[in-house]
Amino acid sequence: MPEAPSRRIALLLGGLLACVLVVMLSVTLAFRPLPRTPEAAASPAAAPGPRLQSAPQPDLGSYRARKQAELAALGPIENEPGWARIPIDRAMDLMSEHGLRATGAKEASP
């Protein structure tokens, strides 16, 4: 004998109510206030402020001048024996004349 639809609806509503109660209990327990301890009650130390300059333009100008001089310099590279630095304009001319040297790339398999 099949169950009456009203019994199915009552079971469904009872299950839904049980789920809602479980969720409400879980949320209540998850968000309950924690006991205050003396360490937590003390105000945290202020974080140090950012080290900002009031006029960074002179430093930026000298930084850009150093980098530009580095791009135009000729000589050995520090901590890289066997390597030399050449001016960027000369390097671009060499690249346009000769292109990149092959580095032994593997042949593609068909």
What share of the residues does DSSP label as strand, in percent?
under 5%
Rg to the nearest angstrom? Answer: 36 Å
Query: What percent of residues adopt helix (DSSP H or I)?
Result: 40-55%
Strand order of the largest sheet: 1-2
Broad shape: elongated
Count every beta strand, where a strand is a DSSP E run of 2 or more residues: 2
Spans of 5+ residues with little confidence (pLDDT < 50)? Answer: none
Can you walk me through this structure?
52% of the residues lie in helices and 4% in strands. The chain has a two-stranded antiparallel sheet with strand order 1-2. The longest helix is centred in the N-terminal third of the chain and has 26 residues, at 5-30. The protein is built from four helices and two strands. Among the domains are: 1-30; 68-98, no CATH class. A hairpin with a 7-residue loop joins β1 (75-76) and β2. It has 110 residues and is mostly helical. The protein has helices at 5-30, 38-41, 57-72, 88-98; strands at residues 75-76, 84-85.
